[in-house]
Fold:
Amino acid sequence: MNHGSFPFIDESFENVALELFRYQAKNNKIFASWLESLEWNANKIKTTNRITQIPFLPVTAFKSNEVITGQFVPEVVYTSSGAINSRHLVSNKEVYLKNAQISFEKFYGPVKDFAWLCLLPDYLERKGSSLIDMADHFISLSQYEESGFFLKGIDELKYRLDKLELNGIPTILLGVSFALLDLTESLKTPMNLNHTIIMETGGMKGRRKELIRKDIHNKLCSFFGVKTIHSEYGMTELLSQAYSFGDGILSPPPQMRVLPRSIDAPLSYSEINKISGLNILDLANADSCAFIATDDVGKVFKNGSFEVLGRSEESDQRGCSLLLI
Structure:
C-alpha cells in the first residue's frame, strides 16, 4: 500500500504536511541526505502529492545526528534515556510547552483545573527530559498548591492525594509504570479514588520485570479503586503527545497522525488494524523532522487511534522500552 490515503488523513492536513515536507526536504540536511540515499531528486520531492509517498526518517537518525531544519541555536536539547541517547534540538522551549498544553487540553480540558501529582523518578534523576519540562509546566499552571513532583516522599504524596480526594478536586497522578507499582506496594492499603485520574507513561526502565500492560493496569485499577488507567505517549524525538482513556488505545492530537508501516517492507504501508511498525507525522516538529519512522510496533485503527504493542526486534533497548504485548 504505497499510495492512497487513510480515512483519518483529511485533505487540509495532507496539504499542510506536504508543504512542510517540501520545506524540510530542502532545509534539513539529514532528511535531505536520507531522501538522496533513496534516489529522490528535487522533481520527485516537488511532485509528491500524498503523505504515503514520503519516506519517513528512521528515528535512529536522532542518535548520531543533529536533525534540524534551518539554522538556529537551540534553547533546549532534549535527550532520551538508554545506552545511546537521542538528541532533539528545540529552538524555542515555550513553543514545545504550549504545544504540549494544547495536546493535553484537547482531550481533558484546561491544565489549570487539575492538581498534578507527578511520580517520575527515572526522569527526575537525569537531565534533558522533555517529560519533566512538560510536567513542570503543568504543575506551574495548576491552581492547586498540592501539585508537585515526588521522588521519595511517598507519605507526602499519600497525604496530598487523600486531601485532594476529600475536597473533590480533579487530580492527575502522572507516573512512570514501575513507580506507580512501587507506590501500590509501599502504601499496601488500597484506596478508593473518585476524583483522580491515574495516568501512566513509559515502562519499567529496567527497574522491574516487564509485565503485560493489561496486568499492570489491572493491578493499578484494583489498588486505586478506579475503572481505567489512562496513558500518555510521547517520545524525545516528537514534540506532541497522544493520550489514552483506557485499554492502551491512544488518540493523537490534531497536529499528529500515526500511519501503519509494513514490517516486511519498511518503505511501504500496512493495513489498518494489523500489527505494523508505526510512522508518526508530527506537524509540531517544524524545526526538526516531522516525518518519523519509530521503532515502535503496534496497530492503527480506522479512526486514527493507535495501540503500541512493543518495540521492533532490531531496535536498541532504550530506557523507554514499552510494555510487552
Remarks:
- The chain has ten helices and 14 strands.
- Residues 94-233 form a domain with the Rossmann fold fold (CATH 3.40.50).
